[in-house]
Amino acid sequence: MSGFDDPHNQFFLESPYALDRESKKLLLLSTLQKLTIFHYENCVDYRNILNSITFDIQKKNDYEDLPFIPVRLFKELDLCSVSNRLVIRTMTSSGTSGQQVSKIYLDKNTATLQRKVLSQIVSQFIGSKRLPMIVIDTAATISNRTSFSARAAGIMGFSSFSNDRFFALNDDLSVDFDGLQHFIRSHAGKKILVFGFTYMVWQYFLESLSKRKKTIELEDAILIHGGGWKKLAGEGISSDIFRSQITGRTGITKIHDYYGMIEQTGSIFMECEKMYLHTSIYSDVIIRNPLDFSLMPYNEKGIIEVLSMVATSYPGHVLLTEDVGIIIGEDNCGCGRKGKYFKVLGRLEHAEIRGCSDTHTLRT
User: Fold this and answer.
1) pTM for this prediction
2) How confident is the model at residue 362 (pLDDT cuts 50, 70, 90)?
3) Could you tell me the residue ranges of all domains in the chain?
4) pLDDT number for residue 338
5) Are 226 and 197 in contact (CB under 8 A)?
6) Which fold has domain 30-94+101-347?
7) What is the DSSP letter of 348?
8) Segment (H or E) for 259
9) For residue 309, what is the DSSP state?
10) Calpha distance 196→175 (Å, rounded)
11) What angle do CA 245, 249, 251 make, to 5 degrees?
12) What is the model's pLDDT at position 145?
């Protein structure tokens, strides 16, 4: 890592879901502690934050004791721990016109680490071979290769699993049915990866199929989708309805949602066959009480905190999100994968966290 010397290779000696609680904690916590020190020494704003709470970075802390920062700070501050000359890409969160967006600065090593972690995780669900890929989005989304939106980052990240790629939407967001059918026919008999953001899949792909009373033959495909649930929830669209429509219109039965954010690109939480989101050995989650930020026990909802070893060029390794979730269990999911498994229940009623004096109402 640029300026950060840590043996990350040790993470790749194990399968992403192979380590139990204690083994994973030894590996991940050590890296998170080193990242805390690195960012403290190299990011002025992060150092000021830790100094304001009189946090002792030299102390051997547990997960829950590591200082978190709210994701909203990336909209308000330029948080970067490497020199400007090393930044190769700026990632930005989604936002409507006039809204502030999060800005995440990547150097070459961080971008490489993100890709490698994403590859290790996703290959556990789709296999190690590259697949033909249908992207439920427009090609224009990835036109800027130095400044990526959340959608562009997702498309580029998952494109690394493809050997041929087709964008299913035209620039006006209509479905290119002729091109789609040609792509499917050209890969007849092959497993196909379908990727898109949840609201894009629903609003522009599924609704178009429904209005035209069309179906697409993709029984052997795998769909990976994420994000956009807030919009769909407002329309009364549940995960069950989404999955039912996907299967009914395309025949796809292998469907995996994922939870992730631009502030921790690469370190995603994939949904297993039992419909639970999973932490890998590269990440973890904590649920905090919205009143005092204390730890919540399993099976009780609270604010989701995410921890990740991929945030090396910026201080995004311990973040308090604006999402509500619940941890179901650890190391004993019916899918056989180790690690915590959890659900995201919705957004905070007032999704703005500025300091530990604030309190928030949960909404599910």
Assistant:
1) 0.90
2) very low
3) 30-94+101-347
4) 97
5) yes
6) Rossmann fold (3.40.50)
7) B
8) strand 254-259
9) S
10) 13
11) 100
12) 62
